[in-house]
């Protein structure tokens, strides 16, 4: 099984742009889609990006996703940061028989 | 409106057993692969188990393999997780999660779009 590694925390000011990385330990990041979930305190996760770079309806276009095969990583970028974006963010992928989540990144908007 | 409502979480002693349920509504339940995902207090998300639309395929995280059994009753729009030989490290909020696309799409089996609010399992003596 592989692992997904995320930074424990990131912080940025309102209106700025932040990028959260997610590095796959083995196997190609491009071999299976990556999803990103937002979780606010006391709430269930919600999807902000699926299939590497697709936004569900209702998710603002300030959220974008990408993958980089050279670093074997995925990234979630949030532009025009708002205080409401403060949350935990998890990347997630899979192989043929296992789902894998990253450890989560706490985003602070200050 | 899609709704997933988990139940069955309680305080149980180590070595004990428990059955969680998830009642689904607002979508054609037997079209979708379903999952259980858990979150220990103050920790991150951990995938637990998958069951295919017809129950014919099941997968488990190594941490629960041989102790947990996922099942479904499509006639009752319900998902279950039988948990045996519980350990203190199984203490967590257990979520059921729906996959984004129906099985007929041939994809998205591992992409979650709706989650319940979770049911808390506490394993403690």
Question: Which labels suit this protein?
Answer:
heterodimer, A: 110 residues, mainly beta, six-stranded mixed β-sheet, four-stranded antiparallel β-sheet, B: 125 residues, 11 strands, 0% helix
What does this structure look like?
The complex is a heterodimer of chains A (110) and B (125). With 110 residues, chain A is mostly beta strands. Chain A is built from no helices and ten strands. In chain A, the strands form two sheets. In chain A, strands 2, 4, 5, 8, 9 and 10 form a six-stranded mixed sheet that branches. Chain A has a four-stranded antiparallel sheet with strand order 1-3-7-6, with no helix packed on it. Chain B contains no helices and eleven strands.
Mean pLDDT of chain A: 97
The geometry of chain B reads as: globular
Estimated radius of gyration of chain A: 13 Å
Helix coverage percent of residues of chain B?
under 10%
Distance between the termini of chain A: 37 Å
> What class do helices, strands and sheet pairing of chain B give?
mainly beta
What is the topology?
The complex is a heterodimer of chains A (110) and B (125).
Chain A (H helix, E strand, L loop, with lengths): L3 E2 L3 E4 L5 E7 L10 E5 L6 E4 L13 E6 L4 E6 L8 E8 L4 E3 L3 E5 L1
Parallel strand pairs in A: 2-10
Antiparallel strand pairs in A: 1-3, 3-7, 4-5, 4-8, 6-7, 8-9, 8-10
Chain B lengths: L2 E5 L3 E2 L5 E8 L8 E6 L5 E7 L6 E3 L7 E6 L4 E6 L8 E8 L12 E4 L3 E5 L2
Parallel strand pairs in B: 2-11
Antiparallel strand pairs in B: 1-3, 3-8, 4-5, 4-9, 5-6, 7-8, 9-10, 9-11
């Amino acid at each position: 099984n592989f692992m997904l590694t995320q930074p424990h925390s990131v912080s940025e000011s309102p209106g700025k742009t932040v990028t959260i990385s997610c590095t796959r330990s083995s196997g190609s990041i491009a071999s299976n889609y990556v999803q990103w979930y937002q979780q606010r305190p006391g709430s269930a996760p919600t999807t902000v990006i699926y299939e590497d770079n697709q936004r569900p309806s209702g998710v603002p276009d300030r959220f974008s996703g990408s993958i980089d095969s050279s670093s074997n990583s995925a990234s979630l970028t949030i532009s025009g940061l708002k205080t409401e974006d403060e949350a935990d963010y998890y990347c997630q992928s899979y192989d043929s028989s296992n789902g894998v989540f990253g450890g989560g990144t706490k985003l602070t908007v200050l | 409106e899609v709704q997933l409502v988990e139940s069955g979480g309680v305080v149980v002693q180590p070595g004990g057993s428990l059955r969680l349920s998830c009642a689904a509504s607002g979508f054609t339940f037997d079209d979708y692969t379903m999952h259980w995902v858990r979150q220990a207090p103050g920790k991150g998300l951990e995938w637990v188990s998958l069951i295919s639309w017809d129950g014919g395929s099941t997968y488990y995280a190594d941490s629960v393999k041989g102790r947990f059994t996922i099942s479904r009753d499509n006639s009752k729009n319900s998902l279950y997780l039988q948990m045996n030989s519980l350990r203190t490290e199984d203490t967590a909020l257990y979520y059921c999660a729906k996959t984004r696309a129906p099985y007929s799409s041939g994809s998205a089996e591992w992409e979650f779009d709706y989650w319940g609010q979770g049911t808390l399992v506490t394993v403690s003596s």
